[in-house]
Structures are given as structure tokens and as C-alpha cells.
Please model this.
Amino acid sequence: MSETLTFKARNNREVEVSAKLWNEAIARTEKKGDGRLGEEDARALFALVAEDNSYSDIEKKSIKHIRSHFRWTDKGSATFRTLIRSAAAKGWGADEVEITTFKAANGREVEVAAGLWAEAQARTEGKGDGRLGIDDANALFELVTEDGDYSALEKKTVKHIRNNFKWTDRGNETFRGLIRAAAGKKGWTAQDVESALSDDE
Model:
């Protein structure tokens, strides 16, 4: 069995992860550049997962938390997602690597799309006034549409990003406009769109 370690998640729970993967992610962010994981880091982390030709439960869990608890460059995040999705198509369970959780205001643990959630966090934590603006809205929308699909998990995540992050007025308007416009162009139903844009939790 691979060596593990625990870290304290944002909800203050102790979470067990692969020591090899977690320490590699830490080593690649601490005191280096802007502290974000880039394209080279994504490939190195994925190589650690794939080196023994197996994909253990602890590795699945570790990837989920590395996606959501470390900051990524846009290219690094996209590369890592592409590698994981490619592996999922060859037999890895996509749900196991692309879902994370957060604690909602009512105390419930809510499942959301790891990539979208991590991107929203990376674009607000320690940056400017901590609000999502026009550029952030465009970047988040690109993540939603990159695979041509709008899954139930993405719909749910869009709603929670809208309700749990601070937005500038123009950023909020831009994001809502992009999601609504996609209803006609991509076949998303009006109900799906309005549910995601609702201010209700």
C-alpha cells in the first residue's frame, strides 16, 4: 500500500492522501514562481499516478484534492484535466477524479465539479478584491463548454459558483449572459439555464 499523509481541508476535516503525490505538488509550488501548478507540473503529477499502471482509490482521492486545493495556471489546469479525461476514457472512473465537495452555508457537504470550483477559487483567493470579473466569467464559461456538454454536475456547480463567490456587477452580468446565450447555441434547455442562474440555494 502506498504511503499516505493527512492534511486539513477547507472544511477543517483531516483528509488522507497519497504522500508521494501531495508532496510532489507541494514541492512544485512552494517558493517557485507564482506558486501555481503549470503544464510541466501537470504532466509530472500525472506521470506519478500512471507509473505503476494502476489507479488506486487513494490516488483518485489525491487527484481530486490536488485539483481543488492547489492553485493552477490556465494551461496547467487544462493539461491536467485533459490527461485525466483521456485516462478516464481508457477505464478510469471520471466521476472519481472530477468531483470535489464544499461546505454550503447551511452546513451541508455539496458535490461540485472540481475543475470549475478550483478555477473560481484560484481566481479569487489572494487576488485584487476577491471578486470574479469579466475575464473570470469568460474563463469559467470556457471550462463549462470545452467538452461541448453541459452535465448535471456542471449545472449544479455554475449555480453554486454564482451563489458562493463574490462577483463584480459586470462579471456577474457577463457570466449570466454567456450561460443564457448558450441555451440557444448549444441546445441547453431554458430550465437548465435558469436553474443555474437562480439565486436560490
About this structure: The two ends are 41 Å apart (CA to CA). The chain is about 55% helix and 10% strand. The chain has a mean pLDDT of 79.
